[in-house]
Specification:
This protein is of the alpha/beta class. It has 16 helices and 19 strands.
């Protein structure tokens, strides 16, 4: 812990804080303090209570019992105490410009000339956190890619906004960023904390947690099960503290024989039956667009099929994935209802059995599949989208950065399921911003400036090879 952290009053202090939602105790007597200069890495599997904890800290939820105090400022609320949150589920208004989105949380921007001031402030912050970002502050958010939107959300969190920023909560801040941009954020977080700020850094990417945190807090079932300086953890020790959620029988290696080519696009993207094909490169260089064109060019825009040729797993679940007014069960079964339908009638018992099976197989943390999909954490919502896709009979699965916000235990289970499905002849096209995920693939297409810059196979699929191809086009 830094000298600043040791000698200063806590920015926020929780004392036996608990939060219940009916019979569900999401936060169970947590005591915690965060001081200036600290970067607290907050880890735990999906549904462990992380989101509830940070919403109690930032004032989004009032604790059912216990206390939340702000000793350093003596403030009554998190907002006045200088606590900011950058959410995993992006909260920007898509029809407003980047600068106008800053204005929503900055009441001091008013009167003649406020737009100019807003553009200058958000541009300054973007330049500081993400040098060379290339984002036009007069662009509407809906025109930005998901990585750019995440960068804007982070910049708004760190922007001055007329008061001192004391504590910034970053919830899965790099889930849509490529490695180079994520490194920029890590560098800035270190700088911010060195200057006396504090950060709560929530991530399922354990390498990032070790790189940026001064202290790690592990949660399980609403409780803090470990709270130690980062040097006191090993990677395996941290995974063990979190607890394992994947079934042991899901991780066995599977030998596969690849079949004939089943996908071939004009831009050179190809895949064989039973192959797991990765799309990589710097974020925003055409990978998501290539997958969207492939999927939309293969499937009907208005009519479902009993035997679909292709199925899609969205990374931007809020925009492209979940049905927010529907229960968990319907969100899982919507892609396969025709399999259970005869003469327009759905076999509800078969539907419920399928959803229950996938709830168990992929570890969706809910007591009742009839609950609304929004009752789940972001990572568990993503599990629902996986269940929807893998429950279908589609021979080709298109995945657009699908592991955003999914915990490490579930990731391992999903990797194993992907390999098992591929062994049965199913083909996967998988765009990911995480190099570790891309290295799970049989073949990788690296994109740069909207084009394929390299095709890697076998031992050539390495982080070094991917980075080299991301920055230098191969000779034609």
């Amino acid at each position: 812990m830094s000298t600043v952290a040791q000698d200063s009053a806590p920015i926020v202090a929780l004392t036996d804080a608990a939060k219940s939602f009916g019979a569900v105790r999401a936060l169970d007597g947590v005591s915690l303090s965060i001081r200036p200069g600290e970067c607290l890495g907050l880890v735990g599997h999906n549904g462990a209570g992380k989101s509830t904890l940070v919403n109690v800290v930032n004032g989004g939820l009032a604790p059912t019992s216990g206390r939340v105090d702000f000793p350093a400022s003596g403030a009554d609320t998190a907002l006045v105490a200088g606590v900011r949150s950058v959410f995993q589920e992006l909260s920007l208004c898509p029809n407003l410009t980047v600068a106008e989105n800053l204005r929503i949380s900055h009441s001091g921007l008013c009167g003649p000339g406020w737009r100019r001031a807003a553009r200058a402030e958000i541009a300054r912050t973007l330049d500081t956190v993400f040098p060379g970002h290339g984002i036009d502050t007069e662009t509407t958010v809906e025109e930005l890619g998901i990585a750019e939107r995440q960068m804007v959300e982070i910049a708004i969190g760190f922007a001055p906004r007329g008061q001192d920023v004391r504590l910034v909560i970053l919830d899965e801040p790099t889930s849509s960023l490529d490695a180079a941009i994520a490194d920029q954020l890590v560098v800035y977080v270190r700088q911010f904390c060195a200057q006396g700020g504090a950060v709560i850094f929530i991530s399922h990417m354990l390498g990032e947690v070790f790189a940026v945190a001064s202290r790690i807090l592990v949660m399980r079932d609403g409780k803090v099960v470990a709270d130690r300086p980062v040097a006191a953890f090993t990677r395996q020790g941290l995974v063990d503290a979190m607890g394992h959620v994947a079934d042991d029988d899901t991780v066995a290696a599977v030998t596969r024989d690849l079949g004939p080519e089943v996908v071939r696009t004009d831009d050179g993207l190809a895949a064989r039956k039973g192959e797991v094909v990765g799309l990589s490169g710097l974020a925003g260089h055409g990978q998501a667009r290539a997958l969207a064109h492939l999927y939309l060019g293969t499937t009907s825009a208005w009519r479902g099929r009993r035997d679909p040729k292709m199925v899609f797993v969205a990374g931007d679940r809020t925009r492209d994935g979940i049905l927010p007014l529907w229960p968990i069960l319907r969100n899982i079964s919507i892609g396969v209802l025709q399999q259970f339908s005869r003469r327009g009638l759905v076999d509800r018992s078969a539907e419920t059995a399928l959803a229950g099976d996938w709830k168990h197989r992929i570890g969706i943390r809910t007591g009742d599949l009839a609950n609304n999909i929004l009752s789940l954490s972001g990572g568990n919502q993503q599990k629902v989208l996986f269940a929807r896709a893998l429950a279908s009979t589609a021979p080709v699965v298109v995945m657009d950065d699908p592991m955003r916000g999914v915990d490490v235990g579930t990731k391992q289970g999903v990797y194993a399921m992907i390999r098992a499905e591929a062994a049965k002849g199913r083909t996967f096209l998988w765009y990911s911003t995480e190099t570790d995920e891309v290295c799970q693939c049989d073949r990788v297409f690296v994109f740069r400036n909207g084009r394929i810059s390299a095709e890697l196979t076998g031992d050539a699929i390495t982080e070094e090879g991917i980075l080299r191809a991301s920055f230098e086009m191969q000779d034609d």
